[in-house]
Predict the structure.
Amino acid sequence: MFYEGLLAFHMARTQQQSHLITRGNEALEVIKMHSQVNPYTFENKYCLLEASRMELLGLDQAGVFYQKAIDSARANKFPHVSGDDFCFNYAVYSTFVDITT
């Protein structure tokens, strides 16, 4: 569900199809529910999906949520998604935050 949401938001930026935004929002809601029950595993994913949604909508807060995703991943010991090792959506991350720290 998480990757489906990321891909839907990413594809919505280029294809401008409303059903992709709907799929991304549905994934975001599912991950949000999971993050409320199990923040250790899902908080970073929720923050990343929220950042992707905000970026799609052109909202300035996207950078804040990208940073929250990194901070949550680091705090919860998910190094593979917390910075330099994060390859999926790396280009998007690097436009908002300094991921080398």
